[in-house]
Amino acid sequence: MAHDICRRVRYAHGVSLSGTNVAELLQLAYSPWSERARWALDAEGIRYRKKAYLPMIGEPALRVRLRRATGPVSVPVLFTDGGAVEGSWDIACHAAAHGGRDADASILPPALRADIAVWQANGEVLTAAGRSLLLLSLVGNVPALRESVPRPLRALGPIADLLAVRAATFIREKYEPARFSSESALAGMRTALRALRAAIGKNEFVVGGRFTYADIAMATSLQVVVPVSEEHIRLGPATREAWTNPALAAEFPDLIAWRDRIYAQHRSPGARPPR
Predict the structure, then answer these.
(1) If I label 168, which of 102, 176, 202, 220 is the partner at 20 to 30 A Cα–Cα?
(2) Per-residue pLDDT tens over the stretch 49-64
(3) Does one domain contain both 115 and 221?
């Protein structure tokens, strides 16, 4: 069964890379989901190039590339000669399968995949709840919205601000943050964080006594509590403040310290994306 978790990876019929042998990762530089994908690819030594995705503006082109006129589309997406791999979990499975290392030495060792999948799900809950809290407050945060606009467009001034507000509203509606109240979002985040605290209480790693994708999933999820340092993911000061949850940061400082150790030991600062 552990093998089957990754064998179900679906390759969408995206536009081929025409035999370049270098995959292309369509991604949001600041997104925890994109960071999971980058980290997995880097950990497995997969060659790829990054391409920035612009929410709302970039969706029509993404639909064309995925040949999907309707239904949900999102990033990260890894375009390979074999097709398009959607989502950080499937990208991690692809990386583990194509990294050239023995399966047992990968970030998704077969014997631990079922346990890792549980922590992938925990990370999804934590990150999605944190995103909902962020989006509920972001529309009125003009400094943070302004920082989200690509640098070449910031010269447009008020037009760029309006574009940023519209993009934030689009994302908020797309991911339905109304399904979380602030109270339920915080409760879900605390449950996931307490589970993480219990898991690493006797070990530096989440499962199996070694570094795996479970550590990647949970370390990147803590981005919605306190963003990781600038050497790993660049954020403007207003954006960094918006992503920070002071109450949870004060309640779980041990987890932030654990995240920082995992990054220091297993993530190269040189792998950070450009702002």
Answers:
(1) 220
(2) 999 998 888 999 999 9
(3) yes
